[in-house]
């Protein structure tokens, strides 16, 4: 474990001990779980995490020491290639899932597909006694619109 994380944990525990002298052991354990454990996890996991952007910027700075214009150019050359890869992925996704282009339709699996009506036919007749309406429903409805399909249609 990193010495900074250990020092931070010791500091947190000593502060807890001084301010919470009259508290029971159960309450103290709860306080440690609430305060110290998240701090420990955050410092332990974030110490070794570095984004890909930061790595590329560091490499460009090492390659072009002192020349910040060349470093920026190096980084943006990489970033343009990275963005074009992401753009190809987005275009592929939108081509396979056009409902995401229309606001409010991303969850509508039936968007752009013919709808299946639950009835075969219907009639309305007007006679002396008034109006009469009749509907003939289908016995079975197929599971339409790919209800159980994955949200991304590219991999069907």
Bulk shape: flat
Q: Output mean pLDDT.
A: 76
Radius of gyration based on Cα positions = 32 Å
Low-confidence parts? 147-151
* Relative helix content: 40-55%
Task: State the order of secondary-structure elements, H for helix, E for strand.
Answer: HHHHEE
Strand order of the largest sheet: 1-2
Indicate the structural class.
Answer: mainly alpha
Largest sheet: 2 strands, antiparallel
| Domains (count) | 2
Strand content: 5-15%
How many strand segments?
2
What does the model show?
By secondary structure, the protein is mainly alpha-helical. It has helices at 3-19, 25-46, 52-63, 68-96; strands at residues 119-127, 130-137. It has a two-stranded antiparallel ribbon with strand order 1-2. A hairpin with a 2-residue loop joins strand 1 (119-127) and strand 2. Helix 1 packs antiparallel against helix 2 and helix 3 (52-63) runs antiparallel to helix 4 (68-96). The two termini are 46 Å apart. The relative contact order is 0.07.
